Structure formats: C-alpha cells, structure tokens
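KIB1-4 beta-propeller domain-containing protein
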Amino acid sequence: MSDFTLQRRYLSGARFLSETPIYRIVGADHCRYSSRDESVGRLVVRNVKASDSEDDEVLEKMVPTDLMTPTGTIGASQGWVATLKDNVVWLQDDLNPFASDSSPKRISLPRPKTSPDCQTQMVTNVALSSSPEDEDCILAVKFVGPQLSLCRPLLSLCRPAEKNNQWVNIRIEDPGFFSSRVMYSNKEKMFSMLGRGGTHTGSWDLENHRSRSFVYRKYKEYLPSEMEDMSRCSRSEHLVEAPTGQTFMVKWYTDIFWNGPDDGVRRWKRFMVFEVAGGDAIATDDIEELCIFLSIKGEPFCVEASLYGLTPNCIYYVGDFDYGKVNIGNNERVGGYGFSPAPYFIPPQSS
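Tokens:
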C-alpha cells in the first residue's frame, strides 16, 4: 500500500479512503526558478513522516512569495491559508501541495466591519468548519480583543455571494478570551476557545453561545527546577479534538533563547497535556495511539498515528523559530531550529 492510500477504521466496519500525507510548510524557493520574477517560487515542504531527517522537497508547484513573510498570512485551517490585505480577508489554497498549481483557488470575502471599541487589523488566528468548497462552510476570524467574526465563504461559482456572505460580528465580553485562539468543534458544531489560563471554554455559532468551566482534577508532579523553568516561560493554551472523540488541552511553554545581546528568539520549552471530559481537566502523559499537531498560527488537529506512519503519543509542532516532535511521556524533543515563514502543517487531504 502506498503512502497515499491508507486504511481507515470505522465502527461500522472497514473502508478505504485515499488521503495525502501530512506536510509541514518550509518556504518558497525562487532561486531554482528560471524566471527573474521573485514574486513567485517553488513550494518547499517536508513530509512529517520523515521529520527526523533533514530532507526537504522542492515541488514544481509555484506559490506567491508574499505568503512567506511574517505578516503574509493570518492563519490556516483545513489546508487553506488566510490573508488580510487592505482590510480584506482572503482564503487561498496556494500552500496546499495537492491543490492545483495552474488554477489556485482564492476567495475574497467582504470587508469585516469593526464593532465599537474593537479592531480588525490584528488577528489571533482563523478556523474553518469544513472545506470552503462546502456550501455550509463557515469561517471564523478571531481578532485580538473582543471581536469574533463569522462568515460563509460560498465558494460555489454557480451562486452569487448574496446577503448570506456577510460577516456576523460577535462581541465577547469576557477579557479572558481577548487573546484566545479559535478552533472548530466537530462535537459541538460550534467554534470554541479556551479562556486565559485554560480555566474555561466558550463556544459560539451564528446564533448561540455557551460556556464551561474546568476543575483540574489531576496535575503531573514536577521537580522544583522544572517549576522554576516554567515560571520564566510564556504560555499559550490550545484546544484540539481527537478522531476518537476525546478532547485535549495543550499548554505550550516557550522561553527566549539569546543568540546575542539584542538577538533573542522564542522557542519551545515544554508541553503539558490535559484530557478534558465534562467539567474536568485531567493531566495525562499518554494519549495512546494518537498524535497532535500544533502550529503557532494554524488550527490544531489530531490523528491516529498508525494511519500515517507517525510516532504515537507525540506532539508535532512548528513555532516561529523552531519545529519538532515531542514525546508526551517524557517531554523529549527531536527537531530543528530556524525561522518558519509560514508555520503551518497541511492536514490529510482527501484525494
């Protein structure tokens, strides 16, 4: 069986589904392109299955190099990246290795309106409920501050983008969500966010809002030196759902590493993983046959490791200046360092 054909198990039986491997975006290589046009370059990726090696793949697929800048994208979900240009949100499949090279899909959405006492220039991240090619797909953009905006991309070319292609702005009153990352919950069929510190969640759709608080029932014990290290770190919280129906919260600790007096970069230091069940958050160092994918700007996802030739009980991550694979059981890391111009994983795509 090839890497592109994987057997997927279902409770009702077994079936075969053709899916692509998982790739990490490395960059764009215009040096090997014969044209002098430096606005495009060949997409460079790395197969996560071979992430222990240093072999990048330079594809024939051409991509705009402006997507490979720190402000070139505002997030990624479902294999699509989002950009914000002149206050207009775009969805693009340019960085998907398996999307069309000759006819990339680029969807321009209406300008989001700024709610009172909010801003629409700085974005935390984005999330899609499904592929933008689905008629019922909804895009969520979480702006820094109180505003969460939802919109239907309506990719279908046979229907005009009428009134239902407008933004719905939701004002979040709880300041604990002002810097939170948004994800789509397939269980709740709503967009969810973790509050500051990972103490509670909020979920929203076009009409409803619900919230839930957590009680931490179990913590992993750490040495005093480990606790001191974590106290110096910055931390972000990430919510991710597994194909098995479980929900996990990951606390991502990063610290500044200095290359010189004025040259510091933020890198991974530690992960803490909790399984969220009802109102309980239970620390765990074993997610069994699963692995989690986290990126600094992309929507997280989780897969069964054996289906993709990956290492179980691991977190694969990419930050702004480092990337790697971390064993949840012992926090050991294998990876590399370097600037990631588009710090994203492309999740499995049905082909």
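The chain has a mean pLDDT of 86.
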